[in-house]
Design brief:
The complex is a heterodimer of chains A (about 240) and B (about 350). With about 240 residues, chain A is α+β, with helices and mostly antiparallel strands. Helices cover about 45% and strands about 25% of the residues of chain A. Chain B is α+β, with helices and mostly antiparallel strands. In chain B, strand 9 and strand 10 form a beta hairpin. The chains are: A alpha+beta (about 240), B alpha+beta (about 350). Chain B: Its main location: nucleus.
């Protein structure tokens, strides 16, 4: 009676569901195959184009006609490269930039003095098993090992900041000493005595007043390694 | 003018290549331009040197000035000598305010207090290099100007470059004077020697090209990226392998020129490893062996080994570690422990 009827309906519903599932699967398969056909057609077209180009002997030349309204793939790529370069230039201008490397990080510290961009120094750091310097291009007279001992393991930001201060100050002092030698070579008597860190400068110059000339000797001591101005100045008249 | 000084100047001028004599005398600055004009620099060197000595006689040259000419010659031709690198240590961490006058005074005082008969000359160069020339005598004999040692020191660095020449017995004295003058505590000889002074500097000051993977604002030297108009039917069989070798080589050696060293020496004190059944050596003693690689430019030749197909890439780290470890003399001993192998002594 009723139960038999219900069973019949259930069976029909089940059959319908199965049929529907089958149909859906068929459709999916059809769609996939259609997409595959498209792919293969595209590949075939590309290869045809390549063969054409080769036959015409125009390797590397753009043969495709691009729609001027839409940017060509090449133009988009060029724009991407340009904006990436600009981004990297910005990082470089900030003074400290870095890039992840295979085994750690590679930092670049750029220096400048009063608007003039000067040297760049590189640091290749490993991050495993602990942070350590793998190699670098920091001059030997900068106390890199000292600074690393203090901050590298505990506070890498501080390490980079302190190192950058040292490097910028050194480069600034050196630039000033070079400028002094270049622009005042006439006034300086003898040679300008300096050292690698440019933290001690000694030179002599003459000051003429009336008919007499007074020889002066200057000794500039830069006590703070992170500062590009002297901390002690001794001027004597011999 | 002293006869010995005259002879010394004559011999120094003879060492200089003829085309360079005039420029070097100009650098020396002892003879005036007018005087130099009177010399014919196209005649044979013997005659040139005689003329120069004559002019020096007029200006009454003494040994100090002659020594300066010698320094200038050695500074322009440093590769005629073998240089060793020494490393100094100090415990303090205060900033060093290197005072050149102070350094010279202390150095001379220390050296002369132990040996009165020495000629000491200094000359500073633009790159902060201080050249010291020392001619050694004995307590009873005047300094022999032909037995000279040269020291090159860059202020505020722990490295000293010494070319001793013959008298090694004076070396401890020289080292002591250097340590005292530069405010360091001690000094030791590194296992690094070469004819090329600049390359030694490149190695210890880490000035050789290292491949840093950061953005370089200067344009990198353009590699030839012109499309090869080559027949597409030709296929490069080992392209992948070639590219792998190039890549590994660049990673290890970098892009730029290598520091120039002429040899690498490996002293092996390892056990001979043979099939235990063969029992080649009945006494278990270290197999002593000395391997020396020499070349006019050792590192460049090592760099070209893999691309030339003569060695597998990557090369043994014992060869490639030379610039980074700053040494070209190695002692390889047996590794003490569970794993058999060898380790390089510090």
């Amino acid at each position: 009676g009723v139960f038999a009827h219900l069973e019949l309906l259930e069976a029909r519903a089940y059959e319908a569901a199965v049929k529907q599932e089958e149909a859906e699967q068929q459709e999916e398969k059809l769609a996939r195959l259609k997409a595959r056909v498209q792919e293969l057609r595209l590949q075939r077209d590309e290869l045809r184009a390549k063969v054409d180009l080769q036959q015409k002997g125009q390797l590397g030349k753009e043969g495709a006609v691009s729609n001027p309204a839409q940017p060509s793939a090449r133009a988009v790529l060029e724009w991407k490269i340009k904006s990436l370069k600009a981004m990297l230039q910005i990082f470089y201008l900030t003074g400290i930039s870095g890039k992840l490397s295979k085994r750690g990080v590679c930092f670049c510290i750029s220096t400048a003095y009063e608007g003039t961009y000067l040297d760049s120094f590189h640091l290749d750091l490993l991050t495993k098993p602990e942070v350590q310097i793998y190699r670098h291009s920091v001059p030997i007279f900068i106390p890199l090992q000292q600074i690393a001992r203090k901050y590298l393991q505990t506070d890498i930001r501080r390490f980079l900041s302190v190192l950058s201060d040292h490097l910028n100050a050194y480069v600034g002092r050196r630039y000033q000493a070079d400028q002094l030698q270049e622009h005042f070579s006439g006034q300086i008597e003898g040679t300008l005595q300096r050292n690698s860190l440019c933290n001690l400068l000694v030179f002599s110059y003459n000051v003429s007043s009336e008919s007499k000339t007074f020889p002066f000797k200057v000794r500039l001591l830069y006590g703070d390694p992170c500062c590009s101005l002297p901390t002690e100045v001794v001027i004597s008249c011999t | 003018m002293d006869e010995t000084v005259a002879e010394y100047i004559r011999r120094t001028v003879l060492k200089i290549p003829r085309d360079e004599i005039k420029t070097m005398l100009q650098k020396w600055g002892f003879l005036s331009e007018a005087q130099l004009e009177t010399v014919n620099f196209h005649q044979i060197k013997d005659n040139i040197s005689q003329d120069v000595v004559q002019l020096c006689e007029e200006n009454s040259a003494d040994i100090k000035q002659a020594a300066v000419l010698d320094i200038i010659y050695n500074n322009i031709y440093p590769n005629k000598r073998i240089w060793s690198v020494y490393q100094m240590n100090k415990t303090g961490e205060e900033t060093d305010f290197f005072d050149l006058t102070d350094f010279k005074k202390k150095f001379k005082r220390r050296l002369r207090s132990a040996l009165k008969n020495v000629t000491i000359n200094f000359r500073e160069y633009e790159d902060n290099a201080i050249w010291i020339r020392i001619a050694w005598g004995t307590p009873y004999r005047k300094p022999n100007q032909y037995k000279t040692s040269y020291v090159v020191y860059h202020s505020q660095t722990p490295y000293v470059f010494i070319s001793v020449s013959v008298l090694r017995s004076n070396l401890p004295l020289l080292c002591q004077a250097l340590v005292v003058a530069s405010n360091y505590h001690d000094i030791r000889e590194m296992e690094l020697r070469s004819h090329s002074l600049n390359s030694l500097k490149d190695i210890v000051f880490k000035r050789y090209s290292q491949n840093f993977q950061t953005y370089c604002p200067r344009p990198l030297p353009e590699r030839n990226v012109a499309p090869e108009t080559v027949d597409l039917r030709i296929v490069q069989e080992n392209r992948n392998e070639k590219e792998r070798i190039q890549r590994l080589n660049r990673e290890v050696f970098g892009d730029g020129p290598q520091p120039k060293i002429e040899f690498a020496q490996y002293k092996l004190e390892t056990m001979f490893k043979s099939d235990p059944k063969m029992d080649v050596l009945d006494k278990k003693e270290p197999f002593r062996c000395l391997i020396k690689f020499s070349s006019p430019h050792l590192l460049e030749s090592l760099k070209s080994l893999a691309p030339a197909g003569m060695a597998d890439a990557p090369l043994s780290p014992l060869l490639t570690c030379i610039p980074q470890k700053a040494r070209n003399y190695f002692k390889i001993r047996e590794k003490k422990g569970l794993l058999p192998g060898s380790f390089v002594s510090p």
